[in-house]
Each structure stands twice: as C-alpha cells, then as structure tokens.
Design brief:
Helix content is 27%, strand content 26%. It is of the alpha+beta class. The chain has a nine-stranded mixed β-sheet, with helices on both faces. Strands 8, 13, 15, 18 and 20 form a five-stranded antiparallel β-sheet that branches.
C-alpha cells in the first residue's frame, strides 16, 4: 500500500500560527512488527535529517516493489519546535527557548501507571501479556493531556512510538565516532543494528531518571518485568539512542550508507521482504555505564587536544590541555588525563569551555572507581 503521510497538529500554538509533526507510515497501521525511527529530537543535530531522507528513498523503492511486510514509521524531523528556533542567525535546537527544557529529557514514564492498571491481569502467557501491555500503553497515553506546545509534541510522538517493537532515535555528538546508547537488558539484542551502522561503542546505560525518548519507549516493559518477576513479561520494545558521529559529519555518502545499514537491519528483522546480507563483524564490545570515562574540564579555557577520535589511550594518559587565558607561567596549562583504558569516542567541537564541561568520552572495558552520574550529559 502507498506510504501514508501524517501531519499531526500540535496544540497550544500562538494565534495565527500552527506547528505540526510529520510522520510517514509504510505498511498498514495495525501491521506487526512495527518500527519507529525518528530524527533530530535535538533539532540542531542535522545528520539524522539526511539519514532519514535517504531512508525514505530506500523505503519508497521497497514499497514500490511490494516488499513492506510489517509497519515502519519514519519521523523525518521529530522536533518542529526546535527546528524553528533561530536566534540572531544561530540555530538553538537542544533546549526549548520558552521553558529551557532539554528536548530529549522528561519523556513520559508509564511503568508505574501500568503496574497499577493491569498488574492483576498479567499472567504466564508472554504473547497475551504483550497484547495487554500494548493496549494499556495506548490507553494511558490517550488519557494524558498537554498544557504546553512541547508537551503536545511529546504526546504526539509517544502515542505513535511507544507501542513499537523497535525504536531508533537518531542523534549526533559534538565530534564523535558512530555509537549507541541502550539499556543493559536491550543492548545485546541490538548488536546487529550496531554492527550494521559501524558503531565504535555501544554504551549500556541503566535507568537514569533522565527519561530520554529511547529510555521511555522501553521503560513500561522493563518496569513491569521488574515489578512482576514471576510473570512472563517480554521486552516488547527494543529501543536505542543512535549517535550519528558528529555535527559536521554530513554528506550523502555517509548518510546513504547509514540508511542502507538500517534497511538491512529492518529486512533481517522481518519488516521488509527479501534476504538480508550477513551481519558485519562488530567493531566494538558493549561498554558498561561504569566503564565509560566522561572527561570534564577542571577550569575555564581553550582545549588543546593531544588525542584524535579513535585513538586508544591508557589510564592516566594526558588527552588534552586547557589553556587558561591571561595566566602566565606553569599555571597557564592544566593537563586533563583519561581515567579509562579505552577508545576516544567523542571530543568537544567548540574549544572554548567553562569549568566542568564534558570534553570527551573514553569507552573502556573495566569499571572505574567512583564512577557516578549520567552517561548522557545535558
């Protein structure tokens, strides 16, 4: 059937203006399995917009050949609010200007409400539980109302995505190699997707309280499985935050390759007819939350890096100097060292930094002493 284009209006727009979010649905609305892939919830992260463009081209061709066997929803720009936020010529798409809210935090966590609503109805048949939970997710989201435009956006995306079997939220880092974030219960199940798109790190992030879109998509299933361990609760949604390298890594070659990898993953998982090519050899192991060094600068200054993306570093190795403006002598430079033995996955694009800003991520394998905090910086 032809691709269905949906433009969902967002409530609470100012008089004389109207915002909407566009979704493209391939396959019938009730078809399974269902995948939801969206780009640029952080609206200034443009690589996902180009990957979505090429993904739509691939899916249009597959649809014309009659190859759509499940349901695939593509959201080519998931954040029309942030997409429009230009201030004095600069695009500010990570936070809503009206409220200061990070567009990828505070997504609705439904687990507790589902526990109270359907806990007594859950049994030992995993497929019956799957159907019951999906209906309840839809019911709970249908009862939530919004009071602001950003909440209306959250509801529109959640209502479409949260009953999906697969959710991929496309982002990017400052300077970075391809990497992915997923809950520990899910990360291994997505190893083929990580290999297809050439991830150099897969970060296993436990529940953080940050409630990113990918976390919130899987949260109902993981919450219920933990609340009712005696029941057969499947993980009904595999979700991940995909970091498409860095802000400046935008060209048709890269984006087309990334989209082709996603299409091959969809084909392998039964969303598209045809034989998928073999899974490539993985380029990394899964990195635990406590093994990733989130490197922060100790002081205000200019970053001078001593390492490149992809470099292998040792624990204690200098990775950057912070040059302190106006300071002379031996105090002019502060050396920043890695706590982890591992791979340099990200660096900061803007080199003038304030104290305590993140300047790198090092993907290690061994747990770090005193590692705390959240793997995704604000």
């Amino acid at each position: 059937m032809p691709c269905q284009i949906l433009d969902i209006p967002l409530a609470h727009s100012a008089p004389g203006s109207q915002s909407s979010v566009r979704m493209l649905r391939y396959g019938p609305a009730a078809a399974r399995p269902k995948a939801h892939i969206q780009a640029a919830v952080h609206a200034d992260e443009a690589p996902g917009l180009l990957v979505a463009h090429h993904l739509i081209e691939f899916l249009d061709a597959a649809d014309a050949r009659g190859e759509i066997t499940g349901q695939i929803v593509i959201v080519p720009y998931a954040n029309p609010l942030g997409l429009a936020q230009f201030v004095n010529g600069d695009h500010l798409g990570r936070f809503e200007l009206a409220s200061g809210r990070n567009f990828n935090r505070g997504w609705p966590a439904l687990g507790k409400a589902l526990e109270q609503r359907i806990g007594a109805q859950l049994g030992n048949d995993p497929e019956a539980n799957r159907s019951l939970i999906r209906r309840a997710i839809s019911d709970v989201l249908g009862e939530i109302t919004s009071s602001t435009k950003i909440d209306a956006l959250y509801l529109a995306l959640a209502r479409e995505a949260f009953d999906s079997d697969l959710v991929l939220d496309l982002h990017c880092d400052d300077e970075g190699l391809m990497h992915m974030f997923a809950r520990p219960e899910i990360a291994g199940e997505l190893s083929d997707v990580a290999a297809e798109i050439g991830c150099r790190a897969v970060f296993s992030q436990p529940a953080s309280g940050g409630s990113t879109f990918a976390e919130a998509s899987a949260e109902p299933w993981l919450h219920l499985a933990a609340a009712f361990p005696e029941k057969q609760i499947p993980i009904g949604c595999l979700s991940a935050t995909v970091e498409l390298r860095g802000f400046v890594d935008i060209d048709d070659r890269l984006a087309c390759s990334d989209a082709a990898g996603l299409v091959n993953s969809l084909r392998r998982r039964g969303y598209l007819a045809g034989l998928a090519s073999p899974v490539p050899a993985p380029l990394c192991d899964i990195t635990g939350f406590d093994a990733c060094d989130i490197v922060r600068t100790p002081d205000f200054g200019v970053i001078v890096y001593r390492v490149e993306l992809g470099d292998e570093v040792e624990s204690g190795q200098p990775i950057a100097d912070i040059v302190r403006p106006g300071v002379v002598g031996n105090e002019a430079r502060v050396t920043v060292r890695s706590r982890a033995k591992g791979t340099v996955i990200t660096r900061r694009l803007k080199k003038l930094v304030a104290a305590n800003q993140v300047i790198a991520k090092i993907a290690g394998s061994a747990a770090l002493a005193h590692r705390s905090g959240y793997l995704l910086e604000d």
